[in-house]
């Protein structure tokens, strides 16, 4: 059958059975297996392959030595000194500093446009999902007031809205 194929043990390619003997003889004569990576390499290109793939190089940023072919993966996924951006402010920094930076950066607050509350940046996305369904939306043309915090009055020991505290203190001060 013309559709039958075999896998060459030297180059790991699928070859039609009709051409397999000739192909295998060619591979046996011209290919060698790299002792470092086990890949079949043309004998004439072995020195170039070793130079491009297996030569030890030093990464300038972190001063680590590694084989050249591993450098790209190290630089993009493994190196603690690779550059990443903060998810809050997009500042570029070393990966090793990202967690601490994002903790502090995410502790900043931003005004939620839906409920007018100040929310931590790291909680803003989940807040917006919960906030939109729970908050009463103002009618068209109606303004929504900001939530008011409360403060403890030392004179009467009651919790007073911050925006009414100054007015609350006036009668107490006059009677003293």
Automatic annotation (TrEMBL):
Question: For this UniProt entry, which segments traverse the membrane?
Answer: none
Looking at the record's lineage, which domain of life comes first? Eukaryota
Alphabetical list of Gene3D superfamilies matching this protein: Zinc/RING finger domain, C3HC4 (zinc finger) (3.30.40.10)
GO CC, one annotated term: mitochondrion
Which terms are listed as keywords in the entry? Metal-binding, Zinc, Zinc-finger
One of its Pfam families is TRAFD1-XIAF1_ZnF
Zinc recorded as keyword: yes
GO molecular function terms here? zinc ion binding
Name all TRAFD1/XAF1 zinc finger domain ranges.
92-131
Read off the PANTHER family from this record.
TRAF-TYPE ZINC FINGER PROTEIN-RELATED, XIAP-ASSOCIATED FACTOR 1
This one is known as XIAP-associated factor 1 isoform X2
**Species of origin:** Trichechus manatus latirostris (Florida manatee)
